[in-house]
């Protein structure tokens, strides 16, 4: 009986170890979102990279002829920290009105959805991005 109990404990510990290893493979990492992303409108590209323990997104390309007050090299997303699997929260700068909003990002496969919200999340605007090569 004692050997059976020890065997069950060892089995339970092994199962927990396997589950822990599997879950660590799905941990949120900044490099999951790292790279250059094209906005669904095709008007701009933002490069996401780790920055000071968070993730930041910098404007790296604007479609020729697009009228915008945004400047190349301008940080659009900053202080984006993990909030769960493939999710981050921080701040989003809107170059059109010069204001900074609460920002969120969610990664699903090859699609990144960003969102900027005002008034405690009552008013939000989203954008969809795909990886650019």
UniProtKB/TrEMBL annotation:
Signal peptide bounds: 1-30
Domain of life assignment: Bacteria
Keyword Signal: yes
A Pfam family recorded for this sequence: DUF2147
InterPro entries from the UniProt entry: DUF2147 (IPR019223)
The entry's keywords: Signal
Gene3D superfamilies assigned to the protein according to its UniProt record, in alphabetical order: 2.40.128.520
Record-annotated DUF2147 domain positions: 35-131
UniProt protein name: DUF2147 domain-containing protein
């Amino acid at each position: 009986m004692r050997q059976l109990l020890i065997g069950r404990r060892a089995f339970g510990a092994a199962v927990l170890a396997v589950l822990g290893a599997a879950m660590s493979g799905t941990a949120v990492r900044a490099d999951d979102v790292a790279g250059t992303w094209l906005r669904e409108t095709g008007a701009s590209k933002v490069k996401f990279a780790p920055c000071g323990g968070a993730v930041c997104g910098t404007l790296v390309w604007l479609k020729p002829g697009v009228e915008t007050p945004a400047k190349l090299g301008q940080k659009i997303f900053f202080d984006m920290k993990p909030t769960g699997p493939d999710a981050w929260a921080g701040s989003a700068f809107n170059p059109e009105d010069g204001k900074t909003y609460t920002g969120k990002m969610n990664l699903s496969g090859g699609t990144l959805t960003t969102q900027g919200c005002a008034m405690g999340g009552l008013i939000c605007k989203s954008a969809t991005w795909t990886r650019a090569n």
